[in-house]
Amino acid sequence: MKKLALMTALVAGAFAATPAMADPMANMTKAGCMACHAKDKKLVGPSFQEIAAKYKGQGKEATLFEKVRKGGAGSFGPVPMAPNSADKINDADLKAAIDFILKS
């Protein structure tokens, strides 16, 4: 019984010490992405669903990462996307956001 209580306490402590999973939508909102993009409708830029449909399953995560960092135009029309530095969204949060978008 003591072993079970000890194991339960250790497992609970491990979960308590683990940082909460990042929320990609909150990070994208904080970074300003939501000013031009939405999950399911075109705003200034394409929706996340449009992006996912175009790139899903193609292994384009690195390409999308670079496109967000450097900006660009032409993939979804003539409106350019401004570059977004690590000051706006750090690398880990950007990677999580790209994974989230491709799962939309």
UniProtKB/TrEMBL annotation:
InterPro entries for the chain: Cyt_c-like_dom, Cyt_c-like_dom_sf, Cyt_c_ID
UniProt keyword terms in alphabetical order: Electron transport, Heme, Iron, Metal-binding, Signal, Transport
Pfam families assigned to the protein according to its UniProt record, in alphabetical order: Cytochrom_C (PF00034)
Signal sequence residues: 1-22
Top-level taxon of the source organism: Bacteria
Domain annotation Cytochrome c: ranges: 8-104
Name of protein: C-type cytochrome
